[in-house]
Amino acid sequence: MRLARERKGQFIIIAAMLLSIMIVSVSTVIYGTVTYYRQERWEEYVTIVDSVRTASSNLLQVGLANYAQTSNSTVLRDYFNLWVRDVRSAYPGFGVDVGYALANGVRSAYGVSLNYSNGLALNWNETTSYAASNATVSIDVASVGLTGYNFSSHVFLKMSIRDAVWYSKSSKRYVNIYVSVDKDGPEPVVNLQAGNFPYVKLGGVSQSFTVKRYYSSVYSYFIYEIRISSISSLPSSAEVTLLDNRGIKTISYTTNIQQDSS
Amino acid sequence: MEDLTTRMAKVRNRRSTKGQMRVVEAIMATLIVIAAVTFLYFFAATPSSQANDTSELEKIGHNVLHDIDEQQLLARYVYNSEWTNLTAALVVSLPTNVYFNLSIYDIDHHSIGHPLIQYGDQQIFSSSAAVASVTYIVPGYQTSYSPRILVLKLVNG
After folding, report:
1. Which residues of B touch A24 (CB under 8 A)?
2. Quick check: pTM over 0.95?
3. pLDDT tens digits for A196-230?
4. A50 at the B interface (CB within 8 A)?
5. Distance between CA atoms of residues A43 and B95, nearest Å
6. In total, how many domains does chain A have?
7. What number is the ipTM of this complex?
């Protein structure tokens, strides 16, 4: 009888000890799970990598804008050489090292064939004109052992003259040029104003004009309607110069101007 | 009669001993569990509280600058000295309880002349132990390469 009571007492204590071990074990697992990402100090260099990546893409944009306006064909290489040096001093102590490879040769993107030289490509004075830049950038962060992080970045601007029409039967004769503009994505650019079109020429002569923008059910696309009033004869050509909000320029040109006498 | 009295006394004594043992066992079990919980309390390094954790603020600050940059506004504000617009953009993008202070430097870490770009009580930056700092680079604007380093300091108000 006494022996049975002693065994029962031992069981309660053993049960309490087992319960304690379970509490400690479960708490350890839960704590490890909850705090796993807090112990990983990854945010700091992820932020740096993301910042350098975004800035490198912006640099392609600045280089393309410069090339489109000045025709300096080595500007992107020059800018990247400066960028590689400046990133090191912008993040002292992190060991950030940027490398780059500019695109060269023919590459296809967004439905057009782009012929790059030193990472830059221009195709102007066509019905569909474009300006593009492309580079592969690598980022190393020595302080956290990150090496070989590569990404390809590109900037793109395309303008298409969908139609150019001379309305001759109207009391006020005028020419409408229907233009669509796309940027990288590709996605339509919808926020341009008249000031983004510095020159509109008919037959090589600069004209004053107005711009209307709307989604056209005819083209099933977002369209800029450029109207040049008081045009008494069918022009031989139409030329539109575009300077977008990033400073990138392109020029579209067509000799296919239709006459609408309805 | 005496036998019966003696036997009853023995039974009562045995019952009381059994009850005391149960109490002792319960106390010992309780002590073991308390010891386990106490062990956890003293040896578990609890994560820092949200008030002292700057990583969330850093992420918020970086995301806000990145979003403004994606909208092609950050470079325009910085290079065209549109400081009021830049302050307004940061105020509307950051949570209302987050105070900020933005400084802009050239690539050699020399401050460029600009008015205070800040929001909230600036005393809290010196008194708070958890001030987050985000560094963001803008390489240039339009056709010009001229890097600017933006240092955004954030604190929970």
Report:
1. 36, 39-40
2. no
3. 999 999 999 999 999 999 999 999 999 999 999 99
4. yes
5. 20
6. 3
7. 0.76
